[in-house]
Amino acid sequence: MTSAPIRTCVGCGGKAAQAELVRVVAAGSRVVVDRARSGGRGAWLHAAAPCIERAVKRRAFGRALRVDGVQPDAAALRVELTGNPRKD
């Protein structure tokens, strides 16, 4: 029996199957969705506004990606992952 890899959301801290989360990476000083699974250090996140907001507020991206000075654009991530620019 094969089980799906389990990852932890940097926003809420909840554990979920890898398929339920989105991988993000640092691209310079920005945080972007890693659609190509490029390898290297990444962080996992639920595609939900509360998780995005909490990760930004807690400065979790910099710690998880081990990059100093990373500036995640919460609004851009929210639009890309949820299709909605509002916090809802």
TrEMBL record:
GO function term, MF aspect, one: DNA binding
InterPro entries attached to this UniProt entry: YlxR, YlxR-like_sf, YlxR_dom
Domain of life: Bacteria
Any matching Pfam family: YlxR
Keywords: DNA-binding
Domain YlxR: 7-68
PANTHER family: BLL0784 PROTEIN, YLXR DOMAIN-CONTAINING PROTEIN
Protein name (database record): DNA-binding protein
Organism of derivation: Anaeromyxobacter oryzae
